[in-house]
Structures are given as C-alpha cells and as structure tokens.
Amino acid sequence: MYRRFACRMVVLGIIAGVGSASADVVVVPAGHGVLRDIEIKQLAIGDPAPDFELFGVDFRYHSLARYEDAKAVVIMFICNHCRVSADYEDTLIELANRYREKGVQFIAINPNPGHKVAADGFLKMVERAQQKDFPFPYLYDETQKTAHAYGPERTPHIFVFGQDRKLAYKGSIDNYHEPPFFLADALDAVLDGKPVQTPVTREGMGQYQVFGCTVKYLTPEERKAKGLR
Asked: pTM to 2 decimals?
C-alpha cells in the first residue's frame, strides 16, 4: 500500500571522488513539499560516517563521537508527518531494544525543517518521542547540514555503520513489513564480521527499494535566503 508514497526516483550512477572516499549522486524529485528536483551526494558503501552535533528531544546535543564504543551505529532519517515513517516507529523501537544488548546504537534524525513542515518542528518531535517512548536519541537537523552529509532520499532512510564506522548498508528497513528484513540482516552480518548480502536498497529495485516520503530539501535559493551553505 505504501508504494503510492514512493515518487519516481531518477538515480544517477556516477561517483564523485573525494580523496579515497566516494559518494553516489542521486536526485530527490520535485513534489510533496520538494519545490524542484534536488541533486544530492549520498554516502557510498565503505564511506566513513560524517560526524555531527545536533540538538535532541532530551534538550542535549549529540554527536556521533559520543557513541564511539558502540559495535555498530544505525543512523535513521525519520520524521513526524510522514505516514510511512510513523508506521515504522514501532518496528524501529523493537529493533533498537533488541540490538541494544548486542552493543548497537540507534540514532534518529529528523531532516525536515519545521518552517517547511509544521508537524516536523522541534516541539512536535518532543511530543512524539514522549508519546512513543523512543529508546534512542531523536535529533533535529534544522539546517539540513547532516542530511547533506549523509544524503537520505526518504523518510525513513537507514544508514548502518560497523565498528570501523564505514557504511555497510543503506536503504529501507524491510520490504513493507515483509522479508527481506534488510536492517536486521545487515546488523547481524556486521556484528558477525561478515559482508552484508544486500548492502543497498534503492528505488526501481523491485522488493529491494527504499520507500517513504521525500526528504524536504531546501533549494539553493532557500538555503541562501536563510544564510545556509
């Protein structure tokens, strides 16, 4: 049923080299709050996790470095307003609680600025986290600096990093609540020191796709007007 939420994604299979790292270039299509097609760089498998410092619903700042002892880190781009993202909250809560005992840290980040989607504003985030009793930090990326560093296309969009903080998996949580269970499978592989069997899920890959609502990226003009680079 949620396939209706997935807009057609134009994926450019080109690589932009930055030193020894690389990035996939993708296009988030216009529509549903995205004013025009937005080209973004997305982390490629094997890329290191960018650090960040973001304010959370616990009224504290969180950085990736704060969780350096975790055996694996799951960065989840989610939001309040998207029905697909909300539908997966219970799944993420269950997975976070299950894998916490194995040394995995889940971190949720909302990449949608509140002035663009009122339901995704910070105070609404606080309300949602309290209502659902999130067992993980829920952070506000108001400037979208972190979103641009990682490159999520949808909410929800998952990035899994091993203990070396290299990207091992990116994409969806599962196949519309059915197998394959991509996130759980990726975590099991990472914790066992094995390669992830399906390291990427992306639009147009049949059951191996990322789906949800588009991240509400600001246009370059909107960023400039707000003094953002």
From this structure: 0.89
